[in-house]
Amino acid sequence: MTRATEQAAGARHKTQPLTYGAIEYLRTIDDYHGVPRGTAIFGRQTVYGYPSIGRVLTLEPGLQQHFAHPFWAEEKVNGYNTRILRVGDAVLALTRGGFVCPFTTDRVTDFIDTRVFEDHPDLVICAEVAGPGNPYLESSPPFIGDDVRFYVFDFMRINQRPRLAAEDKYALIEDYGLPAVTRYGRFTAKDTKALLEIFETLNREGREGLVFKEDAADGHAAKHVTAASALSDIAATAATLNDLPPEYFTNRILRLVLYLREQGEHPTRDLERALGAAFLESLDATLAQYEREKKVFHSFRCRFHDRHNAEAMIAHLKMAGGRQINISRRGLEADGADWILTFDRNYPAINGLLSSVLHGDLIYD
Amino acid sequence: MTRATEQAAGARHKTQPLTYGAIEYLRTIDDYHGVPRGTAIFGRQTVYGYPSIGRVLTLEPGLQQHFAHPFWAEEKVNGYNTRILRVGDAVLALTRGGFVCPFTTDRVTDFIDTRVFEDHPDLVICAEVAGPGNPYLESSPPFIGDDVRFYVFDFMRINQRPRLAAEDKYALIEDYGLPAVTRYGRFTAKDTKALLEIFETLNREGREGLVFKEDAADGHAAKHVTAASALSDIAATAATLNDLPPEYFTNRILRLVLYLREQGEHPTRDLERALGAAFLESLDATLAQYEREKKVFHSFRCRFHDRHNAEAMIAHLKMAGGRQINISRRGLEADGADWILTFDRNYPAINGLLSSVLHGDLIYD
After folding, report:
1. Distances in Å between the alpha carbon of B88 and those of B23, B45, B85, B92?
2. Per the CB < 8 Å rule, is A253 touching B60?
3. Whole-model pTM?
4. Cross-chain CB nearest to B276 (options A56, A271, A364)
5. B224 by DSSP, 3-state: which?
6. CB-based contact B246 A245, cutoff 8 Å
7. How far apart are CA A337 and CA A106, in angstroms?
8. Which residue does chain B place closest to A243, by CA atoms?
9. ipTM above 0.90, yes or no
10. C-alpha distances in Å from residue A101, one per residue of A140, A144, A158, A249
11. What is the pLDDT of residues B233-283, one digit of tens each?
12. Predicted confidence (pLDDT) per residue in A68-79, tens digit
């Protein structure tokens, strides 16, 4: 981002000035002149937003259409996206929106050997953070028992938009022993059958899916998910049904049925029951919680090393949520040298709706 | 509607001029100055739009809030709303939107003894038309085996908005032997327990629910539906998932779980499977139809006495659907003295989406 672009963007309120401790930075609020939302600017160091990767709902035509060249298949992990960089002596981790995340920044050195920045000071590590101890998502992959894990899936460079090519990426991961997403191999669009078999294994294990990346710097990319992913997304979020756009649910139902079809399968009674249960058990629990607690909320529990980061995380969540504050801090307690932050996220739409309908209000729909 | 209001509305393009045979009329396209959408004007005879009736999602607080006075409980039938009137020598039946419906008009005398108009020329009969032979809805109540039936549920008068009081309504129904929705009795807001028991019977029989109407002319009204209604709506429409607003589905899931809760029940495995099947079996059939026919459509088969009405019905469906014509006539064949019209309704959203995703297009959602 040139200085001129930055100024133009700022002038149009497209950037937001922020601080993390003594560090001042800007983030871009919207896509602007080809600069993606979530780009973060630390003085002369710009970290571009991680690009959106499109989804194919049917694998075979999707690969045929988008991959004329060989591509790598990597596991898609159900977590949140972070970009990790060094600014002066500090290693910082950004959210998708371009905020420094106090939690991810606090924990990054548990998982990432930051000596990589000594040799590559302009590196940006793109990773997924997942696990039941994360501060953002109500769900986590079945293979993470507690806390969180980091899974590197790409690298970029400061002031550059392209993602590194696979060869460079895998060499860096190996050289620095970085935790990475599982790599399933290098394929071409003719390998649909082998990939569909991998999907069936992922599906049985409740894993999310694969991301395909052309074997070239900043090549084409696409993602595809399992039926299990569609189901677990619904089960994790139906409890707060009205706080997501309703197409969140219908899109996943469609993904599920298209996934089955491409596997040559039809809905089984077990799958039908699982889909119904994903909605009904979640919402039944919501009604019970609302009766008991007079509100619908989800409790989060996150481990920090630094108390300041825990305090900053609460402030970040309250600020990043916009005008309506839906975060209630419950506690911050020492656990050995660490601090355990607990907080609730409240869901305004389902709370408002239940308050209204349990009061007997008329609905015109 | 005064002449001045009519002219003002027309001047603002709030009315649409229409003809049915030699009869000229106007319908109101939007709510305007308290005149509801769907009001139809035949010269000096105005038939006001039937009012929207609000829905309560929980019965007990709903009745407490809205019914200080006794009310009648009547069955809610899963069909389409019509208003029947006499214009000159003709008996006409209007759609909710204020169009003369050629099908309903063609068939009305099979079910409604029109001698009622000889004694009450200014009467407007409000009825639900339901059954597998209807031209509008993909679903019909389980208790109608073929063709259609008419169920009178209210009366209005020409040039007047109020619905008649219960006493007058039931007297007219009895005096002229009119087919009517089932009347479950007169209740007060304290009778929730008895009404919940009626709902359980309706639910077991796959019936839709009840409408409550204060025992007074144009009194308060509210409706409430069964879990079975939510399920059957989903099963009937999930096949064309993207052609309805997605909240159509999430609203019904919420109704279902609130219904159970008020009955003191929790989701059973059978109910979970039924909900999953409502989505997955419908969509699986959709994919099979798309593979076989290269499009998603629903076939309708309707009986007419008058061939002209069948022709007019196709024209009406094409015109009422707006700019995009999604009706394909299949055939019109004599059956004794009657005519059987067959046509397909095509669903543009699901067709467009399937074309795109089966072609492998990238989705950003």
Report:
1. 10, 10, 10, 10
2. no
3. 0.94
4. A271
5. strand
6. yes
7. 13
8. B250
9. yes
10. 18, 21, 18, 28
11. 999 999 999 999 999 999 999 999 999 999 999 999 999 999 999 999 999
12. 999 999 999 999
